Amino acid sequence: MDALNFVPQVIKNCENINDQLQQFSTSSKIAIEKIWFDVLNINTFIKINEKDEPHMITGNELAQFEKDNFYIKEDFFVHQTYDIRIRPKTKDYGINIEITPNADKVYALFDESFVMIDDERFFEEIFGVIDSLMAQNKIIFRQQFQQRENLKTKLKESKVECLFEKILLKTAPDLIPYKPAEFHFTIKEEWEKEKSKIAPENAFFGVGVDGVIAEYIKPIEGKNGRNLKGVFVKMDTKKIDQIPPITFSKTYVRKEETADKWLFKSLISGYVKILNNFITFNTKYEFDSMKLINAPIFLGGLDSGITLTITSDDDLNDAVGANMIIEATTIDVVGSIGENVELRAQTISIKGQTHQSSIVNATEAKIITHKGKFYGENITVKNLDCGFIQANDCSIETSSGGTIYSKKISIKKLKSNNKINFSSECNLKEIQGGNNEFVISSSSHIPTQETIEFINKKISLLKTKMRSMAKEYQFLISKAKKNKPIIDKIKAADKSVQKVMLNDEDIKKAYQEFSIHVKQLKVLKKELLNLQEKIKQLVYNLMQIEDETLRAKINTNSEWKQENEIIYQRRYPKATDQLLTLKDGENVDIYIDSKTKKITKKIS
């Protein structure tokens, strides 16, 4: 049997649609993936006792069934059967449904291929697909008009951003599922979520005054009620102790109760961990060196107001030993940083050197000698020695073999083998070496690069939508073409013949389908043009970001030494790399000609 052209089959009073589809697939030798069905009618059956014969409700009984105050009653059993039409699956709408474990909620899910057309006929198609999915999963049909109107409203709201992901379809009117109590070490879990990794064992976590340390979510005892599959669910109503087994000092912690939880809030700034169900604090902030053997790992607390001061006990040992992770609002280090150390704070000062494997994250930082990696906003370095910097603004006294990504860069003494990436301005007071590479690029400034990536992702999403729409457009054209010969005959006939022709059910149906498809094609074409305009605007935004580099410049106060390369990168509207080599003894500044968009020399 032809999978795309078999004669649709109507089945009455179908109880298990999945079984029926499988049976049809087996007997017709058509893959089940190529079969779909429409729900033609829903039959609702009720019985009072489980052993009774169910009777189908109609009229006033059916009207009562629509009401919540009837549906929530316990004294009846309900199930529904369906009249369905099995037909060829002509397209995938990109829709599915999600049912919660207790069947108290059902959601509509939309994948990237989903295409929305703001047209009533289209909404009817979508409602039909969701009806089929509900019937397939034995969700009780009630209050369908309200469900459809709500879905239509949500789809129209989501259309603005072209984001259709998950929309609530139904909620059981009276059922509240039981939910056990939960305890959360909040500051620890927030740290792990942000870092996407498990915190080291026995770590302390920073908290400020009035910050939430932990919370105990009270259990939801639940409420008996009928779920969305028509089953009356009885909850286990065992009494559960709502007091958590957590102890603490009232000097440091305050417990607050809300309607659904207990909050444990800190009365001081400090580092916290929970040990044997006791909230314990570490309030020591000054250390003569910090090593894994003599100091805890401090995590979080960037907004706690805590300042950690770490001083090396002698010049031969690191102030912060290997593999330490330390986070605070402010970190002051007098001494050097060992291997695999991670420091994170709003403000960091290191009066020593960083190991090449160390990582420093800060809004503001001052470092004597930097060999490791820095990520942040602003940094001042006395000696950059083969280190890495990713910042917004950096000021360096001497740089040798460094790698820098920043919007603005100032270097007093530039030695050899540096890779300098910037997007706005680079000031060089004295050039002492060569073999340096300067890259002018919008992506050198990481926040700008993140904006570019966000815009590109949006463009990619819109293009995916356009491809799906184009596929739908071709599908509708093929449908319209199928009926066009009949339409041409109708148009060619005089009015009296047209009237007779339209009395024929098949011709009338073809005419109606053609009219619907033509209308949908017009709407879809409008949507495609709208998406094209959105993409055009986003590409323009990328061009604007790219053109900010036209103001980029390198200012020098001395001659260039040996050979140095200047590279100007543009990625829009197409990728180009320009290269300029500066020879020994040249005394020039560098800027970008805004008209030619070329690297240009200017005698300094």
TrEMBL record:
Coiled coil (UniProt feature): 521-548
Q: Which UniProt keywords apply?
A: Coiled coil
Top-rank lineage group of the source organism:
Bacteria
Q: What is this protein called?
A: FapA family protein
Q: Please report the organism this UniProt entry assigns to the protein.
A: Helicobacter cappadocius
Name the lineage. Bacteria, Pseudomonadati, Campylobacterota, Epsilonproteobacteria, Campylobacterales
